[in-house]
Amino acid sequence: MNMTMDSEVREYLQAVESELADLGEEERGGLLEDLGLHLREVAAEGEGTLQDRLGPPASYAAELRASAGLPAREPAEAMGLRRPRAATRAFRKVADAPPVRWARGAIQGLTRRPWVRRVLVLGVVVVVAMAAYEGGRSSGYGRAFGQFRVIPPEISHTSQSQICPYGADGTPLENVLLFDRLGRPIPVQESRSASGASGQSNSYPRPPVTSMSGEVTTRACQKLASLEISASEAAWVSVDAIATPHTGSPYATESRIFTSTLQPGETKTFHGPRLSVVIGNAGGVRLKVNGVDAGTLGTSGQVFRAVYSATSTAAMGDTPPDGSSGIRAPRPAPMQPDPVGPPQ
Amino acid sequence: MDKSQLLKGVLDLAVLSVLSKEDGYGYDVVRRLRAAGLEEVGDASVYGTLRRLFQQGRLTSYVVPSEEGPHRKYYGLNESGRRLLADATKQWLGFTGAMDGLLGLGREAA
Questions:
Q1: Are B62 and A38 a contacting pair at CB < 8 A?
Q2: Does this model's pTM top 0.90?
Q3: Residues 259-278 of A with CB under 8 A from B
Q4: Are the beta carbons of A33 and B57 separated by less than 8 Å?
Q5: What average pLDDT does range A197-212 have in this prediction?
Q6: In the prediction, which pLDDT does B75 show?
Q7: Which candidate among A151, A182, A201, B60 keeps its CA 20 to 30 Å from the CA of A286?
């Protein structure tokens, strides 16, 4: 890749980045994640400059924000009209202090209206300034803003918090005591349901649930599926843990727990209530599902997908919702455009 | 007629449909949409749409390591995304059916 193309990509990237400067780091990072690579691909196609192909960086950034569902940039910032004076400069200094910056990040997630955000930040600044002043005075450090006492956010543990502890082999752990770093007990869901069962759990009160029959039981933690993948050829593997939706949410969350290429001779074992696995070389691996050998479930280079729970039998796993079997056929050839218009 | 307005309305459906056939990374999805005839679709719009659909829990994403260069981030549909595609397709058929009727375009019997 020649120098001019590299510097063109870098310039464009930086310009888009600065147009997104008002966004939180996580949002901005997510949006820009693939941008560099994308720009290089477009540039490598060699059909004009990046500006010719994609438009000016400002309009690219605006289009990106809009389609991502984010608000447009505020005009005053975009025109760079902010001229910090002494008072605003001092305000900025406090506003950049760690606890205030944390609060700003949290507030940014709360509301899109800029004036609400500013009021909230101002409120936080005042509180922090007062706390710092008091802290400074009592410890004899004077009025320096250097000392802050930040109270970490409360981990909200209600009696509905259902922490299910398991050992590395997937067996549920009983009589587990959990505490956070500060020494606050974390309630742990009992894994056996038996009214009256004591068990050493530091959750109090015990979270009982009345079942349909009126019997009071504690909600049990789920049994875990176990999936062992042994590679005889190099195989790309990804495993997600699928969680059931929160109440009120229409969709399940999938959390990536593993992505890598297994080398020949490697074996990895995974546990989870519901595991979704994608294997890039079905012929190169053997699977063991819930302790039962399932063998090799495809040919070399074939992509295999399945979802397993603790009650899955080997081979098929749960049927994916599109009704196909657990084994996906080889990928079809690249999509051809459908002919448009009436036949000639 | 402003085609960009039309496109904005259906970009979600188009992206979901492309991903339902095969997982793809950003630029790959752009190319497939253009190859299908949506020539004016903007790169940035597709990237933003992928990000938004992912945030809404409709897509899985995973990184594929590559020997030749940086890793690529692939997107695919999850159960929720497939449900959304089915609903949005139904919506599309209903809407275009109504428009065809208005315009006097009879739908040929399949």
A1: no
A2: no
A3: 259-261, 276, 278
A4: no
A5: 46
A6: 94
A7: B60
